[in-house]
Design a protein that fits this description.
single chain, 55% helix, two-stranded parallel sheet
């Protein structure tokens, strides 16, 4: 059996390889998972993805499996509890942003019928197929992430700068940034 070619960024651990092979760049439409990935990506700001991936199970446990309605109703007691949880990133602004963003997702669901309808509306439901030959070509932002970020900020979302949004769009498969030599790039072509 020959070894599969993968994006170089994932080769640091078995956990990263599993994430790359199974989740990253796969078009996602599940409401709860779309919210979970948003919270995880905003928590990555200033940190490595490996750090977040290693704490991912703790995040799911701490944030009630990312049930949007529950997170949206978190009070100060729950905020204080989260701030004591060493298993997650205990950044006050990020924890408050997660609660705020759950409330914003509920508003989006009211307006659009679903959060996924809103997120995927920016590309008319299509995956942006980037053809990356060298991973150094992958931008930190682009015009799409700028547009989504601007709209989300206008709607009151927090921690959704263009860099965070670009990483989020990659993670949920709106953008396919798997390198051309990576087996997943071919699997995820429309």
């Amino acid at each position: 059996m020959t070894e599969k070619s993968r994006c170089n960024w994932c080769l640091s651990s078995d956990k990263m390889i599993h994430y790359h092979d199974t989740f990253w760049g796969t078009p996602l439409h599940d409401e709860r998972e779309l919210f979970a990935k948003l919270v995880l990506d905003m928590n990555q700001a200033g940190l490595s993805w490996n750090t977040i991936l290693n704490k991912q199970e703790n995040f799911y446990a701490a944030f009630d499996d990312f049930e949007i309605e529950k997170v949206a109703q978190y009070d100060e007691a729950k905020f204080d509890e989260l701030m004591q949880n060493a298993g997650i990133i205990r950044n006050k602004l990020k924890v408050r942003a997660a609660i705020n963003n759950a409330q914003r997702v509920l508003e989006i669901q009211q307006e659009f019928g679903a959060f996924e309808t809103y997120i995927w509306s920016f590309t008319d439901g299509k995956v942006c197929q980037h053809h990356i030959t060298d991973e150094s070509e992958v931008p930190a932002t682009d015009s799409l992430s700028d547009r989504v970020s601007k709209d989300m900020k206008k709607r009151g979302f927090k921690f959704v700068g263009s860099t965070v949004v670009y990483a989020y769009l990659q993670a949920i498969g709106v953008i396919n940034d798997h390198a051309e030599y990576c087996f997943r790039q071919r699997e995820l072509l429309d």
